[in-house]
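A common beginner's mistake is to predict each chain separately and then try to dock the pieces by hand. The better habit, illustrated here, is to supply every component at once so that their relative placement is modeled jointly.
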Amino acid sequence: MPLFPTALDDAALERGTVLAPRFGADGLIAAILQHAETNEVLMIGWMNDEALRATLDTGYVHFFSRKRRELWKKGETSGQLQAVREIRVDCDQDAVLAKVIPGGDGGVCHVGFRSCFYRVIEDGALAERPQ
Amino acid sequence: MPLFPTALDDAALERGTVLAPRFGADGLIAAILQHAETNEVLMIGWMNDEALRATLDTGYVHFFSRKRRELWKKGETSGQLQAVREIRVDCDQDAVLAKVIPGGDGGVCHVGFRSCFYRVIEDGALAERPQ
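With all components supplied together, the output reads:
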């Protein structure tokens, strides 16, 4: 049985009150994490229906790991648990935006920066400049 | 000839100065638009190599339309051109974050809200609450 319903039409999809996420052919939707206090965009990950369900039910961000092909509670090993303050869906319900408070060292990135977007593209090259 | 090089290893990918975006099997990477002044997350779109190149070269956001299968200069018909103030890449170079100033009516969303993320998920249902 599907974990979420399907929207009947564009009006329901865009203006309705029913959460009807449109998972892609790979079963995933994009999930953007934004720091709830600083508004920094922290990372993007991928959720299947089970990961979205677990995120909504527990209040902590869960992803689907495309590499390991399994449900992944963000921070379970690193300590960087992501407590959800608010979660939003976009107009065509194929992406979510989670406003979070990162646990552990306060970041999300395995490289050691607070945000995964620590590099700016300038004149075609990359420069490390944390937000 | 590819428009961008490929990173030789993880060190180059994560800490190098060479922009070496990792397009997916479908040739696309996710591109998040964030308002450069309010920090609102506005939308997520998809770029192929040509769209990223055009964005970097022109200073205006270009996407690849998955529906129409073509390069799409955001705002070309709606007037909602997105002027890039800064563009970032994430640790594994498979997503970009563009900080933008929206033109036209100041928004990005075809439904009429400034941001596509105008609905909050609350107790499993959706409520319209623009950021």
